[in-house]
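Subject: Re: docking follow-up (2-acetamido-2-deoxy-beta-D-glucopyranose)

Dear J.,

Thanks for your patience while I sorted out the input files. As discussed at Tuesday's group meeting, I've set up the holo structure prediction with 2-acetamido-2-deoxy-beta-D-glucopyranose included as the bound ligand rather than trying to dock it afterwards. The sequence and the ligand SMILES I used are pasted below, so you can double-check that they match what you have on your end before we go further.
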Amino acid sequence: MKVVISLLLLVLAQVCLMSSLVPGPSEAEAGPGTLRILVPQNQLSGEEEEEEEEEKPWPAAGGWELSQETSNFGFSLLRTISMRHEGNVVFSPLSLSFAMATLMLGAAGPTHTQILNGLGLQALNGTQVTSVPALFGRLRETLSCNQELALTQGSLVFIHKDFDVQETFLNLSKRYFDTECVPVNFHNASQARALMNQYINKETQGRIPKLFDKINPETKFILVDYILFKGKWLTPFNPVFTEDDTFRLDKYKAVKVSMMYRVGKFASTFDKNLQCHVLKLPYRGNATMLVVLTQKLGDHLALEDYLTADLVETWLRNMKTRKMEVFFPKFKLDQKYETHELLKQLGIRSIFSPWADLSEVSVTTRKLQVSKVLQKAAIEVDEKGTEAVAGTLSQIVAYSMPPIIKVDRPFHFMIYEETSRMLLFLGRVVDPTRL
Ligand SMILES: *[C@@H]1O[C@H](CO)[C@@H](O)[C@H](O)[C@H]1NC(C)=O
Ligand SMILES: *[C@@H]1O[C@H](CO)[C@@H](O)[C@H](O)[C@H]1NC(C)=O
Ligand SMILES: *[C@@H]1O[C@H](CO)[C@@H](O)[C@H](O)[C@H]1NC(C)=O
Ligand SMILES: *[C@@H]1O[C@H](CO)[C@@H](O)[C@H](O)[C@H]1NC(C)=O
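The structure tokens for the complex came back this morning:
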């Protein structure tokens, strides 16, 4: 009798750190759905939480700015991706921010400044805010306390056994991001690969059985950061009403999709300037999906130029709740990004260059640079359980015709955690029949 539409998101980001004398990029290969980043090794004994900052409920000082700027960072990344292709997109600004914040712990000088500026968080420098990584750490804690949200986040660091990592770096990444450190011998590639795959498979509950295919033996550390989100709609769609329908790709092409349907109370708004509908689809646990649908087919890319955190705030303020009919396609996306290329375009360059200052990671190993940052993200909006719910059919026969929003053309979606207004996922669905 229970019908649940669930959303499953897997994000994999990967940062490879290695000696800059090594030519070419690392060989690490990402599998489906994890975030992997390079980090150094050490034995961290247990949880040392001595100098915890005062427990203050979110939003902490600077928290609002952190959320706003993380959204803006996400929108900038989206625009950068659009310069490369116009297809489907899904990624997690939050996950990438966690990874960059961990790297900030290891970076100094201009390398550090570039990351801070690239994340748009320079305004937080010099305020009473402790540090950007600490702030992300506080956010992570807050999100993990919310059981209903069904967000699993974690961070692993594989460190070459002889690599001398600064204890402070390890202590802080443990404290802020609960990073687990695993010593690995990268010189024995097959052994290292097996060990890392085993760890990641376990941490991601079997969703990513084989993340690494090839490992560059010069690797010093790999940081893997993953986010799994299994959201449940606050009010599920009833699969009985899901039907094959047409989704228009452009003026000439269309595809068949499974179109879900629900009539009920929805919060939405229409932006007259941008000629788009914005529809709110809430999840359990204070998360929400905003669907942005341009009135005219083919306008969706132009809209991206205007996306800002302020604009989203304006939409949310103008939302009205009323009875509506909503048609929303089921879809599934699986994307992989060479995020380092995108970050360079946003001004974060030094860390990828031979001049990277990663002295907070290691003082003994000079010439350390990040070779790449990968993100792998997947989203699936589907129905689980197909038992018909008797009696609901009558709801459908609406005599007064409510307004209809039919998502049958390219659209954007944003998934927010509402109390912190943090942008968890951002994406664009151009063709729901493709990954
Ligand atoms: C932060 O502010 C201090 C002093 O206000 C300045 O010296 C430093 O360069 C700033 N750091 C960054 C990363 O902007
Ligand atoms: C790191 O944590 C360990 C264990 O709690 C502690 O003994 C050590 O002093 C810390 N080191 C630094 C540099 O903070
Ligand atoms: C690499 O590790 C495997 C498995 O532990 C081991 O059998 C093999 O001898 C190692 N190879 C080298 C070159 O050390
Ligand atoms: C959701 O938000 C409301 C209001 O902001 C808050 O009272 C409630 O505790 C939150 N629920 C969870 C599970 O965080």
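A couple of observations from a first look. Residues 1-10, 20-53, 384-400 have pLDDT under 50 and may be disordered. The chain has two domains: 3-231+333-380, 239-331+384-429.

Let me know if you'd like me to rerun anything.

Best regards,
T.
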